[in-house]
Amino acid sequence: MSEKNDGANRDATKRSARERLQAERDRQKARDRRRRTLIVSAAVVGVLGLAAVVGLIAANTGKDGGGKAGPVVAPSGATGKDALAIRTGKDEAKSTLTVWEDVRCPACKAFEDNYRDTIHDLEAKGLLKVDYHLVTLIDGNMGGSGSLKGANAAACAQDAGKFAAYHDLLFQQQPQEVDDAYGKNAKLLELAGQVDGLDTPAFRKCVEDGTHDSWVGKAHEAFRAGNFRGTPTVLLNGKDIFSDKANPLTPQKLKEQVEAAAGASGGSGGKAGDSSEGDAKEGDAKEGDAKAGAKSSPSAGAKTPGATPGAKASRGSAAASKSPANSGPDGSAGN
């Protein structure tokens, strides 16, 4: 009887072990099913959440000036290929200065500060017209939207017939490169208050709506497609005159080239009444005369050559013509 009982007990123990094992397997399968259900549910929630985020981003694209999609609306009187330039000066002027610049670019500010008076003087004499192309290089390098919004505001000023004054003010009041102050419409509207007759409901609506954002974006695409070295890029009658290290540009040299193109006597760039410039001769390239020429321009000052380093500083952003993110923060080679 004892042996029979021992055998029965062993069989019962084996059955119990098998049953426990089977029960554990059943419990594990149940846990696996619950885990799979949770994973699938989480994935669905994640996809729906991503879709919501993408939808929110799409809904807000352009509100911060980061690349608003919409129709390309050129400002009033825009000229050039695809109407991507804003012109100042008289259309009949012999010479055309083409300027690619960014309202956040420090090198562009250096150019404007050094050449502004000379350019305006030549425009007033009917000798020069300027085609401005506004791009968004610094937004791409530093982040923010000041390049885009500032350019749009300048285009809105063009609609109001106040481009030149507002353009100059944007560069005169340009914030530090890392300060995206022009990314705030309030700042752009505040500056408009300093230009007589510009701060109107129409101008405010144009700025706040980003009316010309897509036009600015198209201008930047043209800048990249042109494989330009960076900002500012300055062309006189199609020739890059701002990046020649062997013969650095000065306000005086710009004046002489424009006046020579207009047929000024002797090709000196000096008219009969320009005695303050000296009777320029072919030897004007001498250093002494070049210095005299620089002194004659109130915008050149002792830092006239500094505008050329401005070109040097921006030259490295030629990489930006391929991808803005690859260029220096201010379009500089060193950055």
How would you sum up this structure, described in words?
The protein is α+β, with helices and mostly antiparallel strands. 51% of the residues lie in helices and 7% in strands. It contains eleven helices and five strands. It has helices spanning 2-60, 106-124, 137-142, 146-159, 163-172, 185-192, 201-209, 213-225, 251-261, 287-296, 304-315; strands at residues 86-89, 95-101, 128-134, 233-236, 239-240. Strands 1-3-2-4-5 form a five-stranded mixed sheet, with helices on both faces. α2 (106-124) packs parallel to α9 (251-261), α4 (146-159) packs antiparallel against α5 and α4 crosses α8 (213-225). The longest helix is centred in the N-terminal third of the chain and has 59 residues, at 2-60. It is elongated and about 120 Å long.
Layout of helices and strands:
Elements: H1 2-60, E1 86-89, E2 95-101, H2 106-124, E3 128-134, H3 137-142, H4 146-159, H5 163-172, H6 185-192, H7 201-209, H8 213-225, E4 233-236, E5 239-240, H9 251-261, H10 287-296, H11 304-315
Parallel strand pairs: 2-3
Antiparallel strand pairs: 1-3, 2-4, 4-5
Number of strand elements: 5
State the end-to-end distance: 97 Å
Name the beta content range: 5-15%
Question: Which whole number gives the mean pLDDT?
Answer: 75
Which term fits the overall shape? elongated
Q: Looking across the biggest beta sheet, what order are the strands in? A: 1-3-2-4-5
Poorly predicted segments: 43-67, 265-335
Q: Please write the string of helix (H) and strand (E) elements.
A: HEEHEHHHHHHEEHHH
Number of helices: 11
Alpha carbon gyration radius: 33 Å
Main beta-sheet annotation: 5 strands, mixed
* Class of secondary structure makeup: alpha+beta
Percent of residues in helices: 40-55%
